[in-house]
Amino acid sequence: MLYNQQQKLNAVLRYYDKFFNREEAREMHPWRGEQRPLVKVFDTAEVSMAARRLRNKRATGHDEVAGELIKYGGEVLHKTIADMFNNIFTQHETIMELKQGYLFPLNKPEKLKIASNTRPLVFLPALRKVLSSIVLNRIMPKVNEYV
After folding, report:
1. What span, in angstroms and rounded, lies between the C-alpha atoms of 134 and 15?
2. How confident is the model at residue 42 (pLDDT cuts 50, 70, 90)?
3. Both ends of the chain: CA-CA distance in Å?
4. Which of 37, 46, 72, 92 is 20 to 30 A away from residue 21, measured at CA?
5. What percent of the chain has pLDDT over 70?
């Protein structure tokens, strides 16, 4: 039985460390490579479309940037974001903050309050959501060919 908050926190951390870092999983090597131009660059219209999909009043990631800031930030901001994405992919550099999120273990209703009875919610930065939306929009036509 876990009695204090620190013991509970440690139990949840151990559970999710095993959950997200399984022994049988292959190690992912850092994303590195030769610099080269993109076949299709990110543009302002693409970022604007993805930003419009962000939902209002949602939890922020560790960067504490609300989706509304990007959604209603305007064309100058959307162009800056497109340029940033282009630089990330042409320079083959990653922004570590886009890979990080807050883990919030939510208890399943009417279940014993133990780590294995939680649902992992991960709060990601809004910029990652924009990037994911753009990538999804780009790959969906090919995915639909196989579905």
Report:
1. 33
2. very high
3. 48
4. 92
5. 97
Is residue 101 a contact partner of residue 122, using CB atoms and an 8 Å limit?
yes
pTM for the predicted model, two decimal places: 0.81
DSSP 66-77: -HHHHHTS-HHH
Give the span between the Cα atoms of 70 and 61, in whole angstroms.
13
86 and 134 Cβ atoms separated by less than 8 Å: no
- Cα–Cα distance for residue pair 128/121, rounded to 1 Å: 15
Residue 143 has a CB neighbour count (10 Å cut-off) of 9
Helix axes 44-52, 126-146, angle to 10 degrees: 100
Q: Is 95 in contact with 86 (CB distance < 8 Å)?
A: no
Instruction: Return the residue matching tokens 């490579």.
Output: 33
Do 107 and 121 form a contact (C-beta atoms < 8 A)? no
